[in-house]
Automatic annotation (TrEMBL):
Annotated organism of origin: Photobacterium halotolerans
Pfam families assigned to the protein according to its UniProt record, in alphabetical order: Y2_Tnp, Zn_Tnp_IS91
Domain Transposase IS801/IS1294: 138-301
Gene Ontology MF terms in the entry: DNA binding; transposase activity
Identification of the protein by name: IS91 family transposase
Single GO biological process annotation from the record: DNA transposition
Domain Transposase zinc-binding: from-to ranges: 8-98
Amino acid sequence: MNTFISLLTTYYDEFIRHYGDRLTPDIRRAISAMRRCRTEQAGCAQWYCPHCHHDDRLPLGCGHRACPQCQQRTTSDWLARQEAKLLPAEYFMLTFTVPAPLRGLARAQPKAFYAVMFRVAASVLKDFARRQHSGISGFTLVLHTHNRRRDIHPHLHVVMSAGFYHPQRRQWHKGRKGFLFHHTALAKVWRARLLDAIARHPTLGLPAAPLPTEWVVDCRAVGRGLPALQYLSRYLYRGVLPDKDIIRLNDRQVTFRYTDSQTRQPATRTLPVVQFLWLILQHVLPKGLQRVRDYGLLHGSARTLRLTIQQMLLSLPTWQLSVKTEPLKATRDCPCCRHAMHCVGITRPR
């Protein structure tokens, strides 16, 4: 069993006594799903080996997106889909952050606040691209809610190509080498538009604490884009804290390691178990919130145009770019004869 889920099960009653009044319905649903993940309460899958006629029953996973036991396959699938969309162009990774006084909105109203972040960041990028060229570009926005210490620190990562497609000329332009947008100008527009959107929102409101006048938007080249996608995939579906980073459990204390963002050196953090559980669970996303969004050429509605551009630049036939893979069948190795077993049915408790 995953270490975090084991701690959640063991210290559940104590955790509810300390933090029960701060749990949202989304966090409660996530806790319920993770506690029954891969137990008899979730149901069982019936496996059969046609070679030696051995059958087996294995408990099912919960499938919740906050569960660290159920998202390994999701990571590889997402990375494969995004890699298939890559164009032979130079890519940049941008990071939109928010200052500390606004992070309370992420705790109080995460769904509304994150939706505003997505909408404003997309509008800023579209307007900057429109001023620089009259073509169509594409980018992917990915929401991260924590920093390296796993505190609340919402920010958006963007993977964006420097090239663009001119629809009238039907030409692909590579864009300026080594430069996408000026990060200082991006930060100023990002700050002004986000604060205006928060002030205009019917349920959100600007905090009383003073806000810094200078915000940070990072923009750096990442080659052909694949390294940036691989980096994002490692943090996207694996959970907030992987098991390998939990290095010690003793005296009702949890110690985990991380990389300090200032010194870039390994560091550790030790917390009481119930405080550690809350540190992780506060990052559960609201139901229905899509944390990865594609725009422009990477959007699903632009698939035909994107395949045409890939065919033009890579000199490959369209059928080779758009070939659809068959869905994989559920198989596992038989513990007796090592031949492939097949899932023949699922049993769920009443």
